[in-house]
Amino acid sequence: MELKLVLESILFSSQKPLSVAELRTCLNEAPAHAEESLPKEIQDAKPRAIEKSLETLAQEYQDLGRSFRLTCVAGSWQFVNAPDFAPWIKALYGHRPRAPRLTQAALETLAIVAYRQPLTRAEAEQIRGVSIDGVLKMLIDRGLVEQAGRSEAVGKPMTFRTTELFLEHFGLNKVEDLPAADELRRVPVEQPDASDSEDEASEEEEEASDEAEDETIIEDEGEEDEFDDDDEDSEDEEDEFDDEDDEEEWDDDDEEDEETLDS
Length: 263
Fold this sequence. Notes:
Elements: H1 3-13, E1 18-19, H2 20-29, H3 40-43, H4 47-64, E2 68-73, E3 76-81, H5 86-93, H6 104-116, E4 119-120, H7 121-128, H8 133-141, E5 145-150, E6 158-162, H9 164-169, H10 182-185, H11 194-262
Antiparallel strand pairs: 1-3, 2-3, 4-6, 5-6
């Protein structure tokens, strides 16, 4: 019994792609489910031997020109149909709506992340020349980009990288299989200096102090307005008292005049 035939049967029965490690686990656990002893060389197959058998099997299918082929995507092996037979398969299962196509901005940002990963948002914006906040969030929501830990740069910003779904989406086995883009990889990216961070911090402190001074001035002006209002009220009260005194004096004069006339 050949190793490649055993691997073929496992992949044919699997409902999902299998990595070399998963295939090796199946080989190691198979004797527990067998009534007779199995070949020792298959049970103890090394990862490199498994990969070589899979590559041989894939080449055989390609040479035969079959309607399906064995391919490795994102590090996992699976049987897939050739694209030429898509119309008949759609007629069998129906046409499944695909996710909306990526915009030009999303493709450009995704290419920058793929070729320069891991990198920070600021580094990607330097290369593309515009803000990528919304585009980056969309790529993360679609599962094509993920966080890759903190950078060692000043402030330790978050870095980003592509996911396994990215490899599956574009039919790649690994990132190294991307088409050559040496020009994109050579684009220089400036790292923030500690002095720049200190300058930004000092500017923020100055702005905060200026705001505090403005608030103090506004409060002082408010207190002065209150004092002015109090002074005006006191003056009004004094005027009222003066008016009352004048009225009392007039009343006294009228009474004296009436007494003089009576006499």
